[in-house]
Write a structure and sequence with these properties.
The protein is of the alpha/beta class. The protein folds into two domains: about 120 residues, 3-Layer(aba) Sandwich (Rossmann fold); about 190 residues, Dihydrodipicolinate Reductase, domain 2. It has nine helices and 14 strands. An eight-stranded mixed sheet has the order 8-9-10-7-11-12-13-14. Strands 3-2-1-4-5-6 form a six-stranded parallel sheet, with helices on both faces. The N and C termini lie far apart (about 45 Å). About 45% of the residues are buried. The model has no long low-confidence stretch (mean pLDDT about 95). Bound molecules: nicotinamide-adenine-dinucleotide. The site of nicotinamide-adenine-dinucleotide has 24 residues, from loops.
Length: about 350
């Protein structure tokens, strides 16, 4: 099989995860380029892959004619980097969030359609074994009607985390704990419940990390089309990164995710599903399933099959995030179709 030519832009914190995944997938890919405006970061990334060219800009990266570009730059740059890569004829898998506005997301989707290339958005926790099993049980009707959901994130982001040129800024990060950290819990609940969100009443605040512009805490009532209520909480000022908790309850069963372990209770019987390799938290992110999503994306590129996490789907998650912000700002209920 011809190896896919793969390139990355943004060699910061999350790039460690891609580095590991690329080594695992070395039979099917050749890493041809790594770009970062801080050239040393690109050089460090590239040094692990023979023939990989370290560069500073996207233009130089695209000159290497990659088949696939992975975008791992600050949130506000996702739009420009994705659009330019699609225009250059590349397939693109970007980090979450798809963008920081729905206008940008719509523009990226339109560009993907025009280019005929695949465009996906990372949401690695959907690939956890326990989540896949829960989704299957819900899809098959075994859980019965979904009756409720909640999620709670209590993480630790020290002031030093925000000492860079984009974190903590509305214009560049697009928000705080909701758009950056808790977007994963919102996405998981949306994925499992499988219905459009129709009402959001949210409140955000900045209570401890007062040196940043964006929120360090948020709560919300998120209601799906059929009336199911999802209760949401997130903060970035706990003592440590406690395991995320997500629960979805149905008439016949319940799924409880704690970190990356899922407990499924169905008709009174309990099953605990742990991932084969637990995420170490070494790189300060949640879930160890990037490799699965990246591999699945490559499969779609090769076989022309649909991708799992489409930008339209990722935009629905973004709409819920932005609805929490708008609801808090305007002190009213928001229908995500408004944002
Ligand atoms: N899926 C997850 O669980 C997860 C976890 C962490 C981060 N992320 C996402 O990964 C992305 C990057 O986050 P991070 O924590 O690695 O940030 P980071 O700040 O550590 O890295 C971003 C990198 O992009 C580079 N960069 C900035 N502007 C550039 C430009 N114009 N051209 C080339 N390079 C440029 C910076 O120099 C930096 O090295 C974000 O979208 C973030 O939300 C996802």
């Amino acid at each position: 099989m011809n190896k896919l030519r793969v390139a990355v832009i943004g060699c910061g914190r999350i790039s460690n995860v891609y580095r590991e995944a690329f080594h695992e997938l070395s039979d099917e890919i050749q890493v041809v380029g790594a770009a970062d405006k801080v050239l040393e970061r690109a050089e460090k990334f590239a040094s692990e892959f023979p023939g990989c060219k370290p560069v500073e800009t996207l233009e130089e990266l695209l000159a290497e004619k990659p088949d696939v570009v992975h975008v791992m730059t600050p949130h506000f740059l996702h739009h420009d980097h994705v659009v330019a890569s699609l225009r250059a004829g590349c397939h693109v898998l970007t980090e979450k969030p798809v963008a920081i506005t729905t206008e940008d997301a719509a523009d990226m989707i339109a560009e993907a359609k025009k280019s005929g290339r695949l465009f996906g958005v990372i949401s690695q926790n959907r690939y956890l074994d326990g989540i896949q099993k829960a989704k299957e049980l819900i899809r098959s009707g075994a859980f019965g009607k979904i009756t409720g959901a909640w999620s709670s994130l209590n993480w630790h982001r020290p002031p030093s985390y925000y000492e860079c040129d984009w974190k903590g800024s509305w214009a560049k990060e697009g928000g705080g704990v909701v758009i950056d950290q808790a977007i994963h819990s919102i996405d998981l609940v949306r994925y499992l419940v499988g219905q459009p969100v129709r009402r959001v009443i949210g409140h955000i605040d900045r209570r401890i990390l007062t040196q940043i512009e964006v929120e360090d805490v948020a709560d919300a009532m998120i209601q799906f089309e059929d009336g199911v209520v999802y209760s949401f909480y997130a903060c970035n000022y706990y003592t440590h990164n406690a395991p995320i908790r997500v629960e979805v309850e149905g008439e016949n069963g319940r799924m409880l995710l704690v970190g990356d372990t899922v407990t499924l209770t169905l008709n009174g019987k309990e099953e605990v599903i742990r991932p084969a390799v637990s995420s170490s938290g070494q790189f300060g992110y949640w879930g160890n399933c990037h490799q699965q999503q990246i591999q699945s994306f490559y499969h779609s590129v090769r076989e022309g099959t649909p991708i799992d996490v489409t930008p339209e789907d990722a935009t629905e998650t973004l709409r819920v995030v932005l609805s929490i912000y708008q609801s808090s700002r305007e002190n009213r209920e928001i229908d995500p179709r408004e944002v």
